[in-house]
């Protein structure tokens, strides 16, 4: 009877050893035995430490450090912790600690804007929202599946957790996706095949491969590591080659970083000064063009909120923008506000002679910033809720088109305004509606010299790789940049300087696999993770039922023997 129970214990994924010397790749008895020998309190404390360490390593993979390889170690530690967790409560501790630590390390720039309280609260909420994925990964880890299925299943469950957080609650907050930390690593090219979900999955597979290596399951480890690197690096080069551009497709782009006055002005004067700064920088570029020191731009891109004083309601603001457009002789994409459908964060093409044209109203609004969920309820706890906006989202295709008159090139510009760049659907929608070039106009002056602007630039670089489009990042105070279709930064400004970036960039009209099927790839990976969880639960229940029946049979047999 003892032998049968031991066999059943191994079959159902209970790694508590009966003979630790019989260590196999599928049954990591030795290190798990040592861990399970600890008291429950020591186990939880050690798991918490591992999870916090993993969260710190995840932070190191993000810009500006961009140590992409630390995410691989991070995910290996996370998967290792789920193998060690003795019960579901321990898995909750692991998932919550990991996600909360990642947020606390990565998002202190939020505290510079709203204070430490909301920043810590958001980090805790993100930790809570990671619990479903943590439970899923733990169930798969403790299942009776072979290791070769467990590990990619856990990677897929992590993708499923990110997919949920990208959509819910309040429209989602996918700022801390694993993929963002891989922009400089060998897995990043896979974004052109399966968007950010595939990059996260591959990074998790590398981490899983490292775990398999420690378990001495060498074949599984090799399959995961080599497979991830092949799909991440070699396969995109073969299946998604960047077309050779022609000179006729090129457009001259100017990105204006007007900078912001930091001291000494009241609110309205500050807004007008920001507008004037961008106009002045554009006028200086016009002077250099007229002197033959710069090429004539086909399009000029200003940042989000570059005209906080709306030219649609303020005649002086309209005059300043019109004069700048006339001086430069090219359409300017201006960040402002419109009021025909509530208050909307709008990018508008302002052309010489004809004035305002195509518009993009921001679709993905920032909760607790541009909108305020539960405003009336939360007002009882803090008056800070009244600092949040009450904006109306747009519903367009995120593409604005310049007229292409007077010898200028026509540009179909796909826009993701600031926070929108974090959402897969923003640029995907634009590219599928004909965008030949992309831009991320952003207002990050509030966040000063923090990591926020570098993290956002990394996202724009990843999007450039995903859709193989030249991408302009126009920031009020930096960092502004011009990014080529490979995701490489061609030119870049510093923070808090007035800077004009110009470059001749190719326009592309082809669609990457990610543009056409990225949503399906994410859905398939998510479905795979969910199926693994369902299978783990069913096999666990079936195993428990069989074990219970065997116990009853065993007792009956013993009674009959007596």
Textual characterization of the structure:
It is a single chain. By secondary structure, the chain is an alpha/beta fold. The protein is built from 17 helices and 12 strands. The strands form 2 sheets. The chain has a 6-stranded mixed β-sheet with strand order 5-4-3-2-1-12. A 6-stranded mixed β-sheet has the order 6-7-8-9-10-11, covered by helices on one side. α16 (452-467) links the parallel β8 (437-442) and β9.
Low-pLDDT residue intervals, each spanning 5 or more residues: 1-26
- Radius of gyration, in Å, reads 27 Å
Distance between the termini: 15 Å
Number of helices: 17
Query: Can you tell me the overall shape?
Result: globular
Can you summarize the main beta sheet?
6 strands, mixed
* Alpha-beta classification: alpha/beta
List keywords for this structure.
17 helices, 562 residues, six-stranded mixed sheet, disordered N terminus, alpha/beta
Task: Break the fold down into its secondary structure elements and pairings.
Blueprint: H1 2-11, H2 29-36, H3 40-61, H4 69-84, H5 88-106, H6 108-114, H7 116-129, H8 131-141, H9 147-165, H10 191-214, H11 218-239, E1 250-257, H12 267-290, E2 299-301, H13 315-328, E3 332-338, E4 344-351, E5 355-361, H14 375-378, E6 399-401, E7 412-415, H15 424-432, E8 437-442, H16 452-467, E9 471-475, E10 481-483, E11 489-492, E12 499-506, H17 513-561
Parallel strand pairs: 1-2, 2-3, 7-8, 8-9
Antiparallel strand pairs: 1-12, 3-4, 4-5, 6-7, 9-10, 10-11
């Amino acid at each position: 009877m003892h032998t049968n129970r031991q066999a059943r214990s191994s079959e159902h994924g209970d790694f508590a050893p009966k003979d630790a010397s019989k260590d196999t790749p599928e049954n990591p008895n030795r290190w798990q035995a040592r861990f399970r020998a600890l008291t429950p309190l020591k186990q939880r404390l050690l798991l918490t430490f591992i999870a916090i360490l993993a969260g710190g390593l995840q932070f190191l993979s993000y810009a500006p450090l961009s140590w992409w390889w630390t995410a691989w170690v991070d995910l290996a530690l996370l998967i290792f912790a789920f193998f060690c967790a003795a019960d579901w409560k321990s898995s909750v501790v692991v998932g919550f600690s990991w996600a909360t630590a990642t947020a606390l390390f990565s998002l202190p720039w939020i505290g510079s804007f709203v204070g430490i309280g909301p920043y810590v609260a958001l980090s805790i909420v993100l930790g809570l929202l990671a619990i479903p994925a943590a439970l899923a990964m733990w169930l798969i880890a403790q299942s009776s599946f072979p290791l070769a299925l467990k590990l990619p299943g856990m990677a897929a469950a992590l993708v499923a957790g990110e997919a949920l957080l990208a959509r819910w609650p309040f429209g989602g907050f996918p700022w801390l996706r694993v993929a963002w930390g891989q922009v400089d690593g060998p897995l990043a090219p896979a974004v052109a095949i399966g968007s950010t979900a595939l990059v996260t999955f591959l990074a998790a597979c590398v981490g899983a491969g490292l775990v398999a290596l420690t378990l001495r399951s060498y074949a599984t480890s090799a399959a995961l590591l080599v497979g991830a690197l092949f799909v991440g690096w070699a396969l995109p080069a073969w299946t998604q080659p960047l077309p050779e551009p022609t000179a006729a497709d090129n457009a001259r782009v100017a990105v204006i970083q007007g900078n912001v006055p930091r001291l000494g002005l009241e609110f309205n004067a500050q807004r007008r000064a920001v507008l004037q700064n961008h106009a002045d920088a554009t006028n200086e570029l016009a002077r250099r063009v007229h002197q033959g020191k710069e090429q004539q731009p086909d399009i000029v891109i200003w940042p989000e909120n570059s005209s906080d004083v709306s030219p649609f309601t303020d005649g002086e603001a309209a005059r300043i923008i019109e004069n700048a457009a006339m001086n430069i002789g090219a359409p300017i994409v201006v960040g402002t506000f419109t009021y025909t459908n509530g208050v909307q964060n709008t990018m508008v093409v302002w052309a010489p002679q004809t004035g305002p044209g195509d518009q993009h109203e921001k679709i993905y609004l920032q909760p607790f910033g541009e909108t305020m969920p539960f405003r009336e309820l939360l007002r009882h706890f803090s008056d800070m809720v009244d600092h949040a906006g009450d904006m109306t989202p747009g519903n367009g295709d995120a593409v604005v088109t310049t007229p292409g008159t007077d010898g200028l090139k026509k540009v179909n510009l796909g826009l993701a305004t600031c926070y929108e760049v974090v959402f897969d659907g923003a640029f995907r929608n634009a590219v599928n509606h004909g965008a030949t070039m992309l831009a991320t106009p952003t207002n990050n002056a509030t966040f000063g010299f923090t990591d926020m602007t570098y993290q956002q630039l990394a996202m724009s670089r990843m999007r450039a790789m995903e859709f193989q489009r030249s991408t302009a990042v126009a920031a009020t105070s930096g960092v502004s940049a011009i990014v080529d279709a490979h995701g490489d930064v061609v030119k870049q400004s510093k923070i808090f300087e007035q800077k004009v970036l110009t470059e001749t960039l190719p326009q592309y009209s082809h669609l990457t696999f990610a543009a056409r099927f990225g949503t399906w790839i994410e859905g398939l990976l998510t479905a795979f993770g969910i199926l693994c969880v369902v299978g783990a639960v069913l096999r666990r229940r079936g195993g428990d039922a069989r074990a219970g029946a065997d116990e009853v049979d065993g007792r009956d047999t013993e009674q009959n023997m007596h």
